[in-house]
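In response to reviewer comment 3 from the previous cycle, which asked for concrete evidence that the modeling workflow produces usable outputs, we include below a single protein chain processed end to end. The sequence was submitted unchanged, and the resulting structure tokens are shown without manual editing.
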Amino acid sequence: MGVKIVIGLFLGAIGSLFAQQDSEENSHFTNYDDKLITSLYYFDTSNNFLFNYNLDGTSNYLEFQPNRREQIGVNLSYKFIDVSYGFSPAFLAENKDNSGSKLFTLSTRFYHKKWMQSLTFINQKGFYVSNGEVQAPFPRMRTTKIGGTTSYIFNDKFSFKTIANQKEWQSKSAGSFIPNLSIFYTNFDLNDGGEDTNSNIYLVSLAPSYFYNFVINNQFLLSGGMSTGAGFNIVDGDISAIYEWSASLKIGYNSDSFFTFVNLNYIDFIQDSTAQIRLNDQISTVKITAGYRFDPPKKVKEFYDKTAEKIGL
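The workflow returned the following structure tokens.
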């Protein structure tokens, strides 16, 4: 059984720079920052690529699909501390016969007033390459993606934290216009021992979006968002235009203690058709979570307060 570990630890000094200063409880959302939050989750993500190229006047394509690794894990969160541990058990369908595949993902968000910054790291090893008729394994092929998105939330009554985590809950329906600036770097490595097996891709995109949290009886949530935009892509020095569109959906239940939700996200970067070699970059995630909030034990609170005081939080 291939074991997958995803550990994220974000503590004090980093979080304090981006902590949302207006986190007090208001009439449109409830804040749970002072609660200790534990949860169990199922997580499935992949970063697919589609190459389009012309050969003798004929349009062709190659689809690069990673050997997907489903994960289950646990999360512990308190104030600026957020720790997750996940692994990929063999009994999950996507993990069978994928013992040589590897997947490491790390993502987080920071908030400062109306600003939001997301950071993403994805490292994948093991792909299938297909042209629609023939499929070939590339078990040593690896891709590494690092980047993030800077966003500005216009509406003070809208809680994006309700979508991103369970430290807030939207108590009254609200939506917001949110422009996004995304910057990503991706490295392809065939790892076949030959020369020129690396490709470097830089992507910059500006995409306006709109999100809406629809609240039912203060405890049920249906949240959705869409964005569309454009930018440019640099593939091994060749620059071309790129278009972006994304969609997000979350269905959840919340009380002051127990919560559960399903979250779906999809983003697609589509290269302009005039490029000689087109690269479409797709990221999709599915997350199912159930968890519980409770007051932190006295010793945990005292330890955090002393640590926060020492590092100047």
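The radius of gyration is 21 Å. We consider this sufficient to address the reviewer's concern, and the full set will be provided in the supplementary archive.
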